[in-house]
Amino acid sequence: MLDFGANKLIGSIPNQLNSLLNLTHFWVDENNLTGTIPNWIGNFSFMYALSLSDNNFEGSIPNAFGLLTSLGRFVIPSNKLSGTVPSSVYNISSLYYITFTQNQLQGELPQNVGTTLPNLEKFSGGVNKFTRSILVSLSNASKLRILDFAESGLTGKLPAENFGSLRSLFKLNFDDNRLGNGKTGDLNSLSFLANCTNLEVLGFSRKCFGGELPESIASLSTKLIIFTMGGNLIRGSIPIGIANLVNLTNLGMEQNYLGGSVPDVIGKLQKLQGLYLKLDQFSGTIPSTLRNLTSVTRLFMEGNKFEGSRPPSLGNCQNLMLLNLSSNQLSGTIPKEVIGLSSLSIYLSMSNKFFDWFSTI
Question: Which of 238, 261, 278, 300 is the most exposed place for a label (fewest CB within 10 A)?
Fold first, then answer.
């Protein structure tokens, strides 16, 4: 085992290491290493865990990595790697943990990866430039816990009926892809995810999903802590069944076409820390039940059609740090209960004009 991780090493991996043929674990993650990844690593036939993440490696992933037939963990995210992932890597059946996020990789993902890698527990390749639809065969990887391909250029239909068999799934993130067609029925597949009883993170932001939020949201895992669907083409209202997701800490429904009143049951989500409902078409009054969100630190509801007074009940949100209610149709004075919040130290906007310079927070 050789571990040089989390130092300030520079330069390339020295060729003198190529004689360490009995290596099973090799970690050089979190350094400032440069150059290409050496081909001779493919000679380490006993290699089980390889971590090269968080460096500045360039060039392609060596084809010789397909010779590492004992490999279990393959970790190379946050580099500057380009080209494709060698197809031979996907034939290493012992692999259970593979991540190559935040590189410049491209090409097509093999459609049979769930069959050739049946032991997968983590499969992450987000922030790359892939060009194919989601891998239906992943339903065969019954141990899969984390599937994260955000910002990776995937297209096609979300095959949630296949993911419904992934009972161990903990994180499912496809933010910033193109997996919908903007029409009614895009989200009906969410009902299949009710079988994923261990799901805690669900990311479907900016995918061109259309239609209405289905009532099946109420059947999603009660373990869910992060649920993001912002930047889509979703219409209708928020189903009252959202109240069943009692462990949510972050709920993102911003930049859709959602309308009607925000349901009072939103106040039952008492673990919420971030609530994002900006740039929709909500109307009516801001529900007074928001005062129950005593853990919330970020509340964004700007750019809607809310009416009535600016709610003094928000003064009960003792951890609130950022609040934006601007660009609505609110009236009355700014409540002293809100101004008096000592936690409100980063951003506050209650103007009926719209200022969005803090929208990226």
Answer: 261
CATH of the domain at 103: 3.80.10.10
Domains identified in the chain, total number: 1
| 298 contacts 275 by C-beta, under 8 angstroms | yes
Model pTM? 0.91
Instruction: Report how far residue 135's alpha carbon sits from residue 152's, in angstroms, rounded to the nearest whole number.
Output: 13
The residue assigned the tokens 């150059």 is 35
Residue 309 lies in a domain: no
Q: Give the single-character DSSP code of 201.
A: E
Residue 110 in any domain: the answer is yes
What are the tens digits of pLDDT across the range 271-323? 999 999 999 999 999 999 999 999 999 999 999 999 999 999 999 999 999 99
Q: 216, exposed or middle or buried, with CB in 10 Å at 0-12, 13-18, 19+?
A: middle
Q: Is residue 249 part of a domain?
A: no
Q: Dump strand ranges (E) for 73-225.
A: 73-75, 80-83, 97-99, 104-107, 122-124, 129-130, 146-148, 171-173, 201-203, 210-212
